[in-house]
Amino acid sequence: MSMSFERYMLDMVQPMRDDLTRLGIEELRTPEEVEAKLPDAKGTALVVVNSVCGCAAGQCRPGVAEALQNELKPDHLYTVFAGQDKEATAKAREYFAPYPPSSPSIAIMKDGELVYFIERHQIENRSAADIAADLTSAFERFCS
Questions:
Q1: Which residues face 118 on adjacent strands?
Q2: Which of 38, 40, 50, 139 holds its CA 20 to 30 A away from the CA of 88?
Q3: How far apart are CA 99 and CA 20, in angstroms?
Q4: Which H or E element spans position 94?
């Protein structure tokens, strides 16, 4: 029995994608999809740079899930997957200047402009509840 590396990676990564898409977060898998959504998103947009690392699984995705239970949240919810949808992730990162590439990471944009950013070093070694608290505070600041 033989399985291609691509098929294996798709099968392994799908549950990590599902952690966010089942919350109603839309995947942007190509640069064209990113370009069609991010610069023209009216109101606020959450963009999660997903990853296969442990801090994405243990803190980032659960923290995002908890924060999205808040009554006030962004108008648009997007995700790109670092290391998997490389071109889409690179395109999304163009909107996160001056921050260097970081995964996982979480951006909040307002009318196409970056207004809030959580880098990997602000995710690792913190709890999902801490991440959720940071996001909830940002939602209240930028989404009202």
A1: 106
A2: 139
A3: 23
A4: none
